[in-house]
């Protein structure tokens, strides 16, 4: 089970928030340079799971190992891009400065100019294709540009695992496609395992190796084709779910012909969007 | 009768007057520290906390008059005490923090009112209220300078040591926590630094006005540059220039007000206000030049 190439192993994790169970018995592994999608509707527990992996959120049961060590002191081997980062417009902070903070932002003392650091920052700017706006204020960048800088910020320590919380929300279709392609390139170049949360799996279908599908506090985990199936998802949600494939895209539709009352308000329905 | 602020008559010329010397030293120190700390205060969104600390510290200043010690020590003690209280209250939400600061600030000023009333009635020092609230820079005794410089050095040293974690937490606390930074402890250290700065500013231009020296230079500097180090330097420069100009104008006012000396604080605060307005000009010109709408749409595109 604990393969030497395993970077993240999550075993029997349960989490409660203020006495309410949010996640129940979650299991999955991530190998080196693997790309995994964490899919679920709003409130399904994606952020909670990512924060638990980081060690920010205590869990009631189970173990989490990152690079074969308990996740209590492994921050340096994990890069994290939180959901909804608000970067104020008036921050005196250029894009390259934000990346640099990922390198030495935790150190004490005055920051003397360091050649090593500036070379590293340039490397990261190159890796996320952000040289063009490196010297602009981060607050002035577009959402997609900020996302790329945050990815560079998270990568500068060359972590083995990169966690991204809904990096595609709030991006337009083109920026979504660009960001996904960028992440896939970064995964290969850096050999980093990526766990990315999203409420819509479609933009990720072309790149992810595995999918963790969260619903009702439980998870279905496996290859996309194994997980995104009518039987698996119906079992997960506890009521009938239709999985429909149209032109290489997947629609997950709740309800239909079974018990009408079982349809929740926040039912999850992926959109079909025209991609160029 | 104890004289708490050395009273001096401004007779000699500007550069040879001892009171002017003291005022220049005090205001330079205060403006330097406040200019630098002010930038962090704005980035952290704690301008109001800074103001609240200053207002509360006025109670300490008023108490010092009663006790017969220099108001510096009262300002310092109450500002630090308020910082610890704010930390213990552990308010995470910006709105909660604002409310608490506002309410405590009111209570603090109420105590100040009472203490100043006692000052006036028991000591017949009518100048106390004005000195505490609005400062009286030409009346600061030179003997207090070493203490002021000590506070300034302490504030800047703390800032130098914790500079990066502080900046990182100010940019985004969640990202900082990801790097293992103890966000809350860093926040408390900043409150201490803020208390020290506010104390200096309160000595220079008075408790009520002290926020002006903390916020205005930093706000103007941040409009003019996008780099932290330039902002810090520019902010300190603006604060010091405004202080010196204010002192010079106040000193000169003796000539054109038929023997009165207008309050230094009035001049400093007014100059800072004008500088702040002027610092908006480059942006305004850019806006007019490129057309308001286009500027706005590129600014807000994809905002977050
Ligand atoms: N601090 C908290 N205390 C109690 N319950 C919480 C807390 N934070 C989140 N929750 C609950 O936990 C559940 C999972 O929240 P979480 O933020 O992990 O969902 P998510 O999948 O990330 O949602 P979204 O897509 O909206 O980001 C939600 O039902 C939410 O109401
Ligand atoms: Mg979330």
Mind sketching the topology for me?
The complex is a heterodimer of chains A (276) and B (304).
Chain A: E1 6-17, E2 20-31, E3 35-40, H1 46-54, E4 61-66, E5 69-70, E6 78-81, H2 95-104, H3 115-127, H4 143-155, E7 161-165, H5 173-190, E8 193-198, E9 210-215, E10 218-222, H6 224-227, H7 230-237, E11 241-246, E12 249-254
Parallel strand pairs in A: 3-8, 3-9, 6-7, 7-8
Antiparallel strand pairs in A: 1-2, 1-4, 4-5, 9-10, 11-12
Helix pairs in contact in A: 2-3, 2-4, 3-4
Chain B: H1 18-43, H2 47-67, H3 71-89, H4 94-123, H5 127-134, H6 145-171, H7 173-178, H8 183-205, H9 210-224, H10 228-256, H11 264-279, H12 281-290, H13 292-300
Helix pairs in contact in B: 1-6, 1-8, 1-9, 1-10, 2-3, 2-4, 2-5, 2-8, 2-9, 3-8, 6-8, 8-9, 9-10, 9-11, 10-11, 12-13
Magnesium ion binds next to α1 of chain A.
Task: Please tell me about this protein's structure.
The complex is a heterodimer of chains A (276) and B (304). Chain A has 276 residues and is an alpha/beta fold. Chain A folds into two domains: 217 residues, P-loop containing nucleotide triphosphate hydrolases (Rossmann fold, 3-Layer(aba) Sandwich), CATH 3.40.50.300; 47 residues, no CATH class. In chain A, α5 links the parallel β7 and β8. In chain A, α2 packs across α3 and α2 runs parallel beside α4. The longest helix of chain A has 18 residues. Helices cover 79% and strands 0% of the residues of chain B. Chain B contains 13 helices and no strands. In chain B, α10 crosses α11. Chain B is globular. The chains are: A alpha/beta (276), B mainly alpha (304). At the A-B interface, α2 and α4 of A face α1, α6, α7 and α10 of B. The structure holds adenosine-5'-triphosphate and magnesium ion. Adenosine-5'-triphosphate (ATP) binds next to α1 of chain A. The site of magnesium ion (MG) has 5 residues of chain A, from α1.
Q: Which structural class do the helices and strands of chain A define? A: alpha/beta
Query: How many beta-strand elements of chain B?
Result: 0
Question: Could you give the distance between the termini of chain B?
Answer: 62 Å
Strand runs of chain A, count: 12
What's the Cα radius of gyration of chain A?
19 Å
Main beta sheet of chain A: strand number and arrangement? Answer: 6 strands, mixed
**CATH topological fold name of chain B:** ABC transporter involved in vitamin B12 uptake, BtuC
Q: Which chains have the largest interface?
A: A-B, 45 and 34 residues
Shape assignment of chain B = globular
**Fold-level CATH name of the largest domain in chain A:** Rossmann fold
User: Major β-sheet of chain B, in short?
Assistant: none
Strand content of chain A: 25-35%
Kindly report how far apart the N and C termini of chain A lie: 41 Å
């Amino acid at each position: 089970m604990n393969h030497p190439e395993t970077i993240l192993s999550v075993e029997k994790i349960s989490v409660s928030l203020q006495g309410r169970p949010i996640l129940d018995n979650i299991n999955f592994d991530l190998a080196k340079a693997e790309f995994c999608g964490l899919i679920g509707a709003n409130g399904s527990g994606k952020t909670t799971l990512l924060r638990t992996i980081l060690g920010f959120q205590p869990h009631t049961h189970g173990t989490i190992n990152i690079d074969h060590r308990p996740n209590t002191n492994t921050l340096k081997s994990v890069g994290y891009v939180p959901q909804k980062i608000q970067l104020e417009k008036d921050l005196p902070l250029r894009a390259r400065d934000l990346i640099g903070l990922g390198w030495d932002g935790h150190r004490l003392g005055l920051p003397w100019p360091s050649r090593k650091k500036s070379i590293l920052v340039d490397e990261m700017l190159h890796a996320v294709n952000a040289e063009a706006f490196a010297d602009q204020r981060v607050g002035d960048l577009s959402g997609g540009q900020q996302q790329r800088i945050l990815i560079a910020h998270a990568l500068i320590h060359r972590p083995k695992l990169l966690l991204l919380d809904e990096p595609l929300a709030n991006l337009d279709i083109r920026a979504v496609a660009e960001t996904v392609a960028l992440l896939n390139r970064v995964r290969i170049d850096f050999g980093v395992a990526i766990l990315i949360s999203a409420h819509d799996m479609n933009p990720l279908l072309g790149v992810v190796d595995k999918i963790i599908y969260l619903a009702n506090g439980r998870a279905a985990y496996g290859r996309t084709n194994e997980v995104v199936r009518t039987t698996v998802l119906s079992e997960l949600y506890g009521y009938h779910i239709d999985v429909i494939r149209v032109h290489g895209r997947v629609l997950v539709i709740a309800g239909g012909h079974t018990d009408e009352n079982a349809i929740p308000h926040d039912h999850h329905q992926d959109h079909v969007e025209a991609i160029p | 009768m104890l004289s708490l602020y050395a009273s001096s008559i401004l007779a000699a010329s500007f550069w040879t007057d001892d009171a002017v010397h003291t005022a220049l030293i005090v205001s330079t120190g205060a403006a330097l520290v406040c200019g630098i700390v002010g930038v962090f205060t704005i980035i952290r969104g704690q301008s109001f906390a800074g103001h609240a600390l200053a207002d509360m510290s006025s109670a300490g200043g008023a108490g010092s008059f009663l006790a017969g010690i220099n108001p510096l020590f009262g300002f310092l003690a109450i500002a630090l005490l308020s910082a610890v209280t704010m930390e213990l209250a552990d308010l995470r939400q910006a709105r909660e923090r604002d409310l608490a600061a506002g309410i405590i600030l009111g209570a603090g000023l109420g105590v100040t009112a009472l203490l100043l009333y006692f000052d006036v009635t028991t000591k017949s020092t009518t100048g106390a209220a004005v000195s505490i609230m609005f400062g009286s820079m030409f009346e600061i005794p030179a003997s207090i300078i070493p203490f002021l410089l000590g506070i300034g050095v302490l504030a800047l040293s703390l800032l130098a040591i914790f500079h990066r974690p502080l900046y990182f937490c100010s940019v985004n606390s969640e990202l900082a926590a990801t790097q293992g930074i103890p966000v809350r402890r860093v926040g408390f250290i900043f409150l201490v630094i803020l208390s020290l700065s506010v104390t200096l500013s309160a000595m220079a231009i008075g408790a009520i006005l002290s926020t002006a020296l903390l916020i205005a230079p930093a706000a103007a500097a941040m409009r003019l540059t996008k780099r932290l180090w330039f902002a810090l330097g520019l902010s300190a420069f603006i604060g010091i220039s405004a202080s010196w100009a204010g002192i010079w104008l106040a000193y000169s006012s003796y000539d054109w007000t038929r023997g009165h000396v207008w309050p230094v604080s009035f001049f400093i605060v007014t100059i800072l206000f004008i500088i702040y307005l002027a610092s908006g000009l480059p942006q305004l010109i850019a806006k007019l030049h490129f057309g308001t709408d286009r500027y706005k749409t590129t600014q807000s595109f994809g905002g977050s």
